[in-house]
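dumping this here so i dont lose it
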């Protein structure tokens, strides 16, 4: 399935119990679901840490799977090289769990990371999130639907903010209401994704385009002009809505790339690192621009 292949393409750019470590990462249990552990991996930065974190959404088609730490580290390597502490978050996976479950899970992961920020040696106010395809969708949901925590929550984590400081969403769906299985004449490719077997009302509740407000995190949104799975208009809609509301953002369209961003992946990763360098800096500044790189832009 094409979204699953996205994960393999992302790897090209470059289990232990809670509290234990491998030479490459520490695996942490951040919650439980039906007796199953929800986990994320923690990766140390290369060289001098900058005190900020980049959290990678491990999701394709709202499926989330464990991979060896060496592979996951490759995904995060550009950010680790820039001094960021890396986190790879897994959520309850489709088809057993739905899109709303995935959103709830990754929100809990962010609360947990921020609650334990001192333990990880990071600033809780300098946490960024990156994801591709479904992972990009989850990134945008975190950017647009965060809160300051439940003051009446029964645990310290529940009382912790889920707000992120910046997001990078690669080829993300922003409005999935037209992709649900009940859509008339829906293309067959979307029936590969059980997460879309929901009502339009349920889809709207997990579509970040409908939740943009002025206090949202600044987002870099990258789309492929030849993407036939998540059409580039999905990224452009999000950019235009953020511009309308006044949320700092940047939209990059790679005209000649499809859903995997193909030969533009290196450029996309460079854009992502620069975005985090700007918005996760201790004295962050914001900009709002749109760019359409030429086919031969590095």
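and the seq i came up w/
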């Amino acid at each position: 399935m094409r979204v699953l292949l996205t994960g393999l393409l992302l790897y090209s750019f470059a289990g232990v119990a809670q509290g234990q470590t491998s030479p490459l990462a520490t695996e942490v249990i951040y919650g439980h679901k039906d007796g199953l552990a929800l986990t994320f991996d923690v990766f140390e930065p290369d060289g001098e840490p900058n005190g900020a974190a980049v959290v990678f959404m491990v999701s394709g088609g709202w499926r989330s799977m464990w991979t060896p730490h060496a592979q996951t580290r490759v995904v995060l390597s550009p950010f680790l090289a820039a001094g960021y502490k890396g986190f790879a978050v897994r959520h309850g996976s489709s088809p057993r769990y739905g899109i709303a479950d995935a959103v709830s899970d990754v929100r809990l992961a962010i609360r947990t990371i921020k609650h334990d920020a001192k333990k990880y040696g990071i600033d809780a106010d300098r946490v960024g999130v990156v994801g591709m395809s479904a992972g990009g969708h989850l990134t945008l949901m975190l950017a647009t639907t965060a809160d300051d925590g439940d003051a009446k929550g029964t645990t310290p984590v529940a009382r912790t903010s889920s707000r992120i400081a910046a997001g990078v969403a690669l080829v993300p769906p922003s409005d999935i209401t037209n992709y649900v299985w009940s859509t008339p004449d829906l293309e067959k490719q979307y029936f590969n994704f059980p997460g879309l077997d929901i009502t339009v009302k349920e889809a709207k509740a997990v579509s970040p385009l409908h939740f943009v407000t002025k206090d949202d995190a600044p987002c870099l949104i990258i789309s492929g002009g030849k993407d036939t799975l998540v059409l580039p208009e999905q990224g452009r809609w999000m950019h235009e809505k953020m511009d309308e509301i006044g949320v700092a953002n940047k939209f990059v369209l790679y005209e000649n790339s499809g859903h995997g961003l193909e030969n533009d992946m290196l450029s996309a990763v460079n854009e992502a690192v620069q975005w985090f360098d700007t918005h996760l800096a201790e004295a962050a500044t914001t900009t709002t621009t749109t760019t359409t790189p030429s086919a031969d832009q590095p």
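The domain at 2-291 is CATH 3.40.50.1820 (Rossmann fold).
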